[in-house]
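Hi R.,

Here's the chain you asked about this morning:
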Amino acid sequence: MRSTVKWIALYTPLPWAKGMPTRPEMDQLAGGTPPGEFSADVRQLLQFTERFSNEPRDFAWQPHPFFLEMSDQDWMRWGYLHMNHHLRQFGL
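And the predicted structure, written out as tokens:
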């Protein structure tokens, strides 16, 4: 079931649903990292984005919280879609 949902989420042209709750461990109001100073947060996001997309990787992929094990291609697709999803939230 997860592999079917993963394939639909990553490889069909359907936009990701709005209003999906954030996992508690990622939610900045629950167990996630609270926001700091905006420009510093943006710089850190750019650094993480570059590290995420650089090859060769200087880290090992961890299992996705819902999809579990994912290939490098799956992670790259997920990263693109995830970033696009949040940029669309803010009209960018």
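The chain has three helices and no strands.

Let me know if you need anything else.
M.
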